[in-house]
Structure formats: structure tokens, C-alpha cells
Design brief:
This protein is α/β, with parallel strands linked by helices and 492 residues long. The chain folds into three domains: 268 residues, Alpha-Beta Complex (Spore Coat Polysaccharide Biosynthesis Protein SpsA, Chain A); 66 residues, no CATH class; 122 residues, Jelly Rolls (Sandwich). The chain contains ten helices and 26 strands.
């Protein structure tokens, strides 16, 4: 693969992944999950580009509620700079995010070319993907808006479709060709989807795009003048002390519309490359069978599964043993705090379950029992009126924020490693089987000074044990008093 010095990857990480519940949650959507590899989907997406570009040219647009998780997953070995993670104050779909990213690319490189990718797609064959990217960049340099088309394998109503002009070739690389686009069709009904499948002239819209930054901004100006006016007002504020205020104003007034509706359905510059790689957007549990290995009976089995005589089903067990008998075309997903069972034909309806959970304010739609933090993780073991029990794991060298609580006290018992505890004016160490009490309204901090993980059991007691009963006084991760309605449930 030939590196391109003008290419920038733009990863869109604002999705909620509600159709992938119970594995995905509002504060931990599917881009942060490990699916078929040892890396999360967002890590796979970023790593897929490193043979072509350095991490310094990978930009990520994420919502405020996911900012910390993005920084945690893409820092370290992957090396995406913190300054390259752009945080949207509110979600406004993809057009606003892409417009902002295009301006950022143009400020860095007037000849910048963008490869825009969702953070939560699964592409097992990275080499074939990069081969297609090289052709896409070549065509984008000529002023085209390029997308990758996926050959449909079923009449899917949850995807957009692209009708290709087979005889109009806009670029060729070996057996790969970029074709003209006759039209885009967004999420057709079942009869139309069946017709598109039979015709052989339509592709699924993968949602992966390539274009020059200046070209997409001109297209936004032509087809979305209101959004373009907001971007023009924002432009001089980027990189200045007024940037945060400018972004807040821009996002409050920006249209909530996708780039597909806003530009691609109207442009005359569109091109499509029939993808030579395997792809799935993991839009719902049924789509997992597009890319996962199957047994002889056509079942996808992930985790500790014991099955007798099932066919064409999808089974996922996070930790516990799951036994299934004689199921046909079913989905069974088991996590620590929730289980899903449904026919594959109803997999799209999982979103409605999440809506019901949201109406009830059920924690199972918001977070998992185990929550990853920059310093390690915590797991809620049990909770009831006036109490909560957690297992807290702190990485070597990690430490929680200096904080206090107004409505609860905490009792800590060390079960592994060594803890360094700050409690008011005292700083002391605890070892295995030793414990301490943290009174409410007392400034405190937990840290791991050792070279092995630290585990404690934390028992909270008080009138209220919600995660938003916290005031951060100091923090290694820039989270001092940043709690707001979208992040307050994450705590510590």
C-alpha cells in the first residue's frame, strides 16, 4: 500500500447501537465492544488505517457522553492524539459532524482528502479494504464524492441503497472500478428491497465515504445552505479561545440530518466502488451472521454455549453457560444483567425494547454492571435501598479522582494488591484483608502504587447511592467537575 500524505481518516463515533442491546448500552455502545477479535470495533477501525496513514492523521468525532471512552480506547498503543478527538456538545447526525471535520482537515492541509468511516463496522479483510481505499482516494482527487457499495445478500429494509451506472466508469484499478451513480434510495420497503435484490444493479450504502475536504464543503454550501452558514460562522473561531462557545452555538442551530439525505441524494458528483471486502455494520444481532463463523447447522455460537439440535440461530454468552435445545432462526444473548431472546426476523425490534427501558429509567439500557474507567473498572455486585456493593479494580499506577460524596459513606476492603488511600488529611496504605471507612463529605482518593492490579470491595451506605453523588476536586484525566446529565452516571 502506498501512503498518501494528504489522506485523513475521520471516524464517526456518535452511534448508540440500540439494536445491539443488551451487549451495547447508551453509555457503552457497540463501537466499544469486542466482537470477533481481541480489539474493540473502534480500535479495529482506527488500526485498519495505520498501514496508509499515521495516527496523527486519524480524527474522531464523538459525543460528549462517549468522549472519555474514545480517549481511553484510541490512546496508548494506537496513538491517536487527544487533540484529534473532536467532542460534539449534542448529536446532530452526520452532516454537522462531517462539516466540522472537513473544516479541521482543510485547516491542516488545503489538499486534504477525507476517508469517513463509522466507528462500529466490521471489515475482516483489511488488505482488500485498503486496496479499495486507494482507488477511492484516486477518484476523490478528481472532485468526486465516493462511497463503497456492498452487494446485497438479502432484501434488507434497514440500509440505504445505491443504483450504479455499470457502463460509466470513473476510475479503474485492476479489477476494481468506480462507477457513476444513478440514484440513492434510503431504507426502502420490503417489496422495493426485493426488487432491488433481483435487479442486480443496486448496492447497500456502506456509509464509508471519501472526498476532498474542500469539495464536500462546497457541496454542503450548495445543498445545505443553513448548515453551511453555521460552518462559515464557526470557521474563524476554530483554534481560538472562542472555539468551545462557537461549537456550542453551531451545534444548537445545526440541522439534524445525515450527509446521505443532505448531500449525496442531491449531488451530481457521486461515485460508487463495489466493495471487494466482507462488511457488516453490525446493525442488529441478525447481521452478525454475515461475518461470523457458523457451525454445520448454520448457528453462530460465541461464548460458553452448549446446543442440541438448533439450526440457523445466533447464540452469544458473555460469561455464564447458556444451553439451547432445538431452536430455529432464533437470537439468544446473555449478559451479566440482561438476557435477550427473539426470532431473527424480529432483531430490528430490539430498539423498541430499549425505548421501553428508557421510559422506565432502567439502568440496564444505560450501562453494564462492569464499567470501564481510565484507571481500571468497577462492577456493581448488588444494589438495594440505601446501599450498593462494588468490586473496584485499579490498574498498576492508576488512581481515581480526589473526590467527596455528600449523601453516602464508603467502606473499602482490599482483596488483591496494595491500596494507597487518601482520606481527609491522612495518606496510608492497605494490604489484602485490611479495610477502612470513608465518611461522607470527606475528600478521598484510591490509587494503586504497585505493579499488580489492585482489587477492593466497596460497600456504599447512605440515603442515596447514585453515581452522580460525586464532586471531583482533582483528577488525572481532566474530569474535574465535568458531570452533566449525559455523563453523571459514570462516576469515579
Amino acid at each position: 500500500m502506498t501512503p498518501n500524505h494528504h489522506l485523513y481518516a475521520v471516524i464517526l463515533a456518535g452511534g448508540s447501537g440500540t439494536r445491539f442491546w443488551p451487549l451495547s448500552r447508551e453509555l457503552y455502545p457497540k463501537q466499544f465492544l469486542k466482537m470477533l477479535t481481541d480489539h474493540t470495533l473502534i480500535q479495529e477501525t482506527a488500526s485498519r488505517m495505520t498501514p496508509l496513514i499515521p495516527a496523527e492523521r486519524i480524527l474522531v468525532v464523538a459525543g460528549v457522553q462517549h468522549a472519555e471512552a474514545v480517549r481511553l480506547q484510541l490512546g496508548g498503543a494506537i496513538g491517536v492524539p487527544k487533540a484529534n478527538i473532536f467532542i460534539e456538545p449534542v448529536g446532530r447526525n452526520t452532516a454537522a459532524a462531517i462539516g466540522w471535520a472537513a473544516q479541521a482537515v482543510l485547516r491542516r492541509d488545503p489538499e486534504g482528502i477525507m476517508l469517513v468511516m463509522p466507528a462500529d463496522h466490521l471489515i475482516p479483510d483489511g488488505a482488500e479494504f485498503l486496496r479499495a481505499v486507494e482507488l477511492a482516494v484516486q477518484v476523490a482527487q478528481d472532485g468526486r464524492l465516493v462511497t463503497f457499495g456492498i452487494k446485497p445478500i438479502r432484501p434488507e429494509t434497514g440500509y440505504g441503497y445505491i443504483q450504479a451506472e455499470r457502463k460509466r466508469r470513473l476510475g479503474v484499478q485492476g479489477e476494481l472500478a468506480a462507477l457513476g451513480v444513478a440514484c440513492f434510495v434510503e431504507k426502502p420497503d420490503l417489496l422495493a428491497a426485493k426488487r432491488y435484490l433481483r435487479s442486480g444493479r443496486f448496492y447497500w450504502n456502506s456509509g464509508i465515504f471519501s472526498w476532498r475536504a474542500d469539495v464536500i464543503l462546497k457541496e454542503i454550501e450548495e445543498h445545505m445552505p443553513t448548515l453551511a452558514a453555521g460552518l462559515a460562522k464557526l470557521r474563524p473561531q476554530l483554534g481560538t479561545a472562542d472555539e468551545a462557545r462557537g461549537l456550542e452555538e453551531f451545534y444548537q442551530s445545526a440541522e439534524a440530518i445525515s450527509i446521505d439525505y443532505g448531500v449525496l441524494q442531491k449531488t451530481r458528483r457521486a461515485a460508487v466502488i463495489p466493495a471487494p471486502f466482507q462488511w457488516s455494520d453490525i446493525g442488529n444481532w441478525r447481521s452478525l451472521e454475515d461475518v461470523a463463523e457458523k457451525d454445520d447447522a448454520g448457528n453462530v455460537r460465541i461464548g460458553p454455549i452448549v446446543d442440541l439440535g438448533s439450526r440457523g440461530s445466533i447464540f452469544y454468552a458473555e460469561q455464564r453457560l447458556v444451553a439451547t435445545i432445538g431452536l430455529v432462526d432464533m437470537v439468544v444473548v446473555d449478559t451479566a444483567d440482561a438476557t435477550l431472546v427473539c426470532p431473527k426476523s424480529r432483531a430490528q425490534d430490539v430498539k423498541q425494547v430499549v425505548e421501553k427501558l428508557r421510559e422506565r429509567k432502567a439502568p440496564e439500557q444505560l450501562v453494564h454492571r462492569t464499567v470501564l474507567r481510565p484507571w481500571g473498572s468497577y462492577t456493581v455486585l448488588e444494589e438495594g435501598p440505601g446501599y450498593k456493593v462494588k468490586r473496584v479494580s485499579v490498574n498498576p499506577g492508576g488512581r481515581l479522582s480526589l473526590q467527596r460524596h455528600s449523601k453516602r459513606s464508603e467502606h473499602w476492603v482490599v482483596t488483591a494488591g496494595t491500596a494507597r488511600v487518601t482520606c481527609g488529611d491522612r495518606v496510608f496504605e492497605l494490604r489484602v484483608n485490611e479495610s477502612t471507612m470513608i465518611p461522607k463529605e470527606t475528600a478521598h482518593r484510591l490509587e494503586n502504587p504497585g505493579h499488580v492490579p489492585l482489587d477492593i470491595i466497596e460497600v456504599q451506605s447512605g440515603d442515596y447511592v447514585g453515581e452522580d453523588d460525586i464532586v471531583r476536586l482533582a483528577d488525572d484525566y481532566g474530569r474535574v467537575n465535568d458531570l452533566n446529565p449525559s455523563t453523571k452516571n459514570q462516576g469515579a
